[in-house]
Design brief:
The protein has five helices and two strands; from the N terminus they run ααββααα. It is mainly alpha-helical and 104 residues long. Strand 1 and strand 2 form a beta hairpin.
Length: 104
Amino acid sequence: MSGAPFNRCAECNEVITNPLCSGCLAPKMRLLVEEHDEILAQKIEGAHIDGDTVCIQCGERMGLCAHCFSKDIHEFLQQENPALAREFASQFDFDLRQKLADFA
């Protein structure tokens, strides 16, 4: 049985099973990127998309899954610094490496 439509990601339309909002993920992602490139790190920001899922860390309502937010940041890093993008994928996986392998 699939989840209710209001619990789906606005980007991929999958049920949000790992409810961490981009506002909580972005600072952690910035810390990792900052170790390698301070300028790129400054460009990583959360993307608030309202939804009916509640972030388990901050309690904000969210509509973008952790996988899609990680994928978006990974694609940005892939364009700017491919080696850093690989490191990022190993730290913020959310099934990202599996999906990337499916496209290889």
